[in-house]
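HUMAN: You are asked to prepare a plain-text protein record giving the amino acid sequence and the backbone structure tokens, both parts labelled.

ASSISTANT:
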Amino acid sequence: MIRDGDEELVRLALAEAAGAGPAGDVPVGAVVVDAGGTVLGCGFNVRERDADPTGHAEVVALRAAAAARGEWRLDGCTLAVTLEPCPMCAGAAVAARVGRIVFGAWDEKAGACGSVWDIPRDRRVTHRPEVVGGVLEHECAAPLLSFFATRRDAGFGADAPGL
């Protein structure tokens, strides 16, 4: 269920996503806030910039939040991201014990919060955060669609999320 403040969180994630572009990374952004709304961590995709396969926006933001909190457990926190988390990122959010995952655009090719897989709601996981998808969906999809259209035009193939 969308709560007051969810759109604002996704807008913060959208602002973060802009940082990915200069290095040629997919424009995905993420923020982690505590129960009081204080931003603990934020990030954008850095896979290309850092040559790091785990350099997804969610992982960057979760690492920063854990460092700010001084512990890996992010109980009561919300992870807001512009694109539905992939299996790695959904798993990281579950492992970090976030209370909520809020995201914008759905990813019909690799989404793991309801599209292709549903890791946070899987009855076999030990922690099940609330998941809210589609918040500012069109605003979140726009930079991704533009990014992948440019890549296709440049001959990089159709590796876009299933937006």
Summary: The chain has a mean pLDDT of 94. The helical segments are 6-17, 47-50, 57-69, 87-95, 137-153. The radius of gyration is 15 Å.
